[in-house]
């Protein structure tokens, strides 16, 4: 007997879903039966991925409340419900000494990585609460928030804030059956990899980072997507407040 798709009947918003880990998450969720709205700042890439994978798309600046309000309306108008929010969109600045970090760098990581999670929950939690619907929020954090390394201080701090907020809200909203979990990848190969390593994103330049991972490689979009799919599914109905380190043992 063919197993039932794990996300059948569920509707999800995936931010930053046009590329990298986000696209991997969207592809996995579609494969498992979910209906998806890709929320991304890049209209061209977002529409292309939506067409490729059979999803909806909405141009979204995750740091803007009005964009989140529009996303919720779109989900309800299009699908009649919302079940899962994956806060995947993220930003970093180039690897550099902390004294060289600018106000612009700081604002970027705090707004995109932290404020976006604040706004998403502030806008969407009332929908779950007022309709007495269970819900699932999944934040894509980072091993940087668990085991911070030098030269990315405020990026590290932003991801630590996301993990802490996720755990706090898991406790706060557990009685209403709204789950909050996080996934923390180690550096992989995405559009931001060159910023993390401070060098061009080549196999040779990634070797120094990957040599510190016991399983010998970086995170892939598929790795991250598999963890997110589990957390979004009913298989994880009793899982809340966790941060799954998708890191090949890096944080041990």
UniProtKB/TrEMBL annotation:
The keyword Nuclease does not apply. SUPFAM superfamilies: NAD(P)-binding Rossmann-fold domains (SSF51735). Keywords: NADP, Oxidoreductase. GO terms for molecular function: oxidoreductase activity. Pfam families: adh_short_C2. The keyword NADP applies. It comes from the Eukaryota. NCBIfam families: PRK07231.1. This is Uncharacterized protein. It comes from Daldinia eschscholtzii.
